Every structure is written in structure tokens, then in C-alpha cells.
Amino acid sequence: MERELIGRNLSVEDDNGDAIQTIKEIEVTLNPETLDIVRARRMAKTKQIVGYEIPIKLVMSKLESRLRYRLLADFKAGKTMFLDRITGSLEDMQTGNTERVLLTGIHIHGNMDILVAQIDSNTGIDITLEGTATDFDFVEQFPDYMA
């Protein structure tokens, strides 16, 4: 039986713990870095995990410019563009159970729009932030029925 899972309760907090609104989308993946290992007896290849990267893509409305201005001010001052933490949730619409993930130490190092103007468009303008996180933790997990 397939369940519908909805991403909800996404929040990004600044250094003061204040929520930043108008976040539309987030994508987070775990990309292991591997090293090829050749087993001597059978000459079989395997891979050993030697590190990992946690890329993050965050899409928000242009209406939320406070975060963008802060990150660009940090950049101009020669500081790292940094978010302390991001918390996101998935909700099982049938049971109400949730899974919450806390991402910490987010460094923003992708391209960022400074000016976007569209004269013939009625759609909103979004800002995409890309970077990497240093760690993640499951604050709340789905029960065993979802495993």
C-alpha cells in the first residue's frame, strides 16, 4: 500500500533562532566519496567510503530578501556565507506521523542572484541557494511500519 508523504514544516533559522519565511523547496542528499579497493585473492573490486558531502539546494521567494541581504553582506565583508541550521519534516498524511531532520553547519557557496528583472512575466521570482552541510541528525523518525 503506497502512502502519500508531504514535506511540511520546513524552517530555516538565522543566528538568533528567528524563523525565515517563504522557503518553498529544499533538496538534501548524502554523497559518499569512495576509493576503489582490489581484493588480493580474487582480484574483485569493492569500494570503501572515505568521506562524504551533503549538498543542499534551498529555493525561496524573492520576498524573503532579509536572508539574501545578510548572506551577501557577509560575502562582501570577506566572511563565509553560513546558516546555523535547517530543520525539515515529512508527514504521513494518513497517520499524521512525521520524520524531522536537522541539518547543521550549512555553508552557502553556490551562485546567488543579485538582480533578476522580468518585464513580461506574471510569475514570482525565486532565489536558489546552494551549498553543503557539515552534519545531519534525525530528530524524529517514522515508526517501524514505514521501514
In brief:
Helices cover 8% and strands 53% of the residues. The chain contains one helix and nine strands, in the order βββββαββββ. Strands 1, 2, 3, 4, 5, 6, 7, 8 and 9 form a nine-stranded antiparallel β-sheet that branches.
Structure description:
The chain is mainly beta and 147 residues long. Helix content is 8%, strand content 53%. The protein has 1 helix and 9 strands. The protein has one helix at 65-76, and strands at 5-13, 19-20, 23-28, 31-38, 45-61, 82-92, 98-108, 126-133, 135-140. Strands 1, 2, 3, 4, 5, 6, 7, 8 and 9 form a 9-stranded antiparallel sheet that branches. The chain is globular.
Measured by DSSP, the beta-strand proportion falls in: over 45%
DSSP helical segment count: 1
What is the CA-CA span between the terminal residues?
A: 13 Å
Q: Which structural class matches the secondary elements?
A: mainly beta
For the residues shown, what is the average pLDDT?
81
Assembly status:
single chain
Unreliable parts = none
Number of strands: 9
Write the layout of secondary structure elements.
Layout: E1 5-13, E2 19-20, E3 23-28, E4 31-38, E5 45-61, H1 65-76, E6 82-92, E7 98-108, E8 126-133, E9 135-140
Antiparallel strand pairs: 1-2, 1-6, 3-5, 4-5, 5-8, 6-7, 7-8, 7-9
Features of this protein?
single chain; 147 residues; mainly beta; nine-stranded antiparallel sheet; 1 helix; 9 strands; 8% helix; globular
